[in-house]
């Protein structure tokens, strides 16, 4: 089963991982998630994890020492670890990255706060033979910390692990998933009962029972929607 270790100064953010599909996946033994408080690795009465930036400037930077200790504690030399450093300066997270991460054995999420983590943490683990380091951003905006970004990534990754979704076919036609002809389009619009709601009818063709025609219609709608996003 894949193992995900999350290092944060706000462990409470992750209480939502006990509910819904991820909660069920954990209970069913499909994924092992452990949350670690970075402050357990901090020294002194104040358990401080940050300091002023070299070179000056506003804000505080997370110190490398507690990060090194926390990461070392959750890793060993026996397997390859994928260390994910959340940062708005990282590579943009997308569905294909979610697919790639969903196949990996051990992910470690480093949730930054303040102005981010001392860059030597990324540099150091990048030189270690049992580590691959990924600087990842969930989008071009700045959050207060990496916790919400980690939750976004976990949700996208974990639903791809076999057995997590009740019906694995739901994954096949989803938005941003590569189709058999190599397109990554968004999904067609969906409708359910009643057939008429507030004078709006469900497209006639969906009630026709003609599966080939429905397939063609949905594909066209998916293409239209994909083009309209650009
Ligand atoms: N000073 C940093 C900069 O301008 O690039 C921003 C730091 S931000 C206030 C604090 C932390 O939030 C970051 O270290 C990172 O862990 C997280 N964070 C903020 N925006 C993010 C994003 N778009 N994707 C992933 N993590 C993000």
The strands making up the biggest β-sheet line up spatially as: 2-1-6-5-7
Count of DSSP strands:
9
Strand content: 15-25%
Low-confidence stretches: none
Helix content: 25-40%
Small molecules bound:
S-adenosylmethionine
The biggest beta sheet is recorded as: 5 strands, parallel
* C-alpha-based Rg, rounded: 22 Å
Overall average residue pLDDT: 96
SSE run: EHEEEHEHEHEHEEH
Counting DSSP H or I runs of 4 or more residues, the number of helices is 6
Report the principal-axis shape: elongated
Give the helix/strand class: alpha/beta
Distance between the termini: 38 Å
Record keyword descriptors for this entry.
five-stranded parallel β-sheet; elongated; 230 residues; single chain; two-stranded antiparallel sheet; binds S-adenosylmethionine; alpha/beta; 6 helices
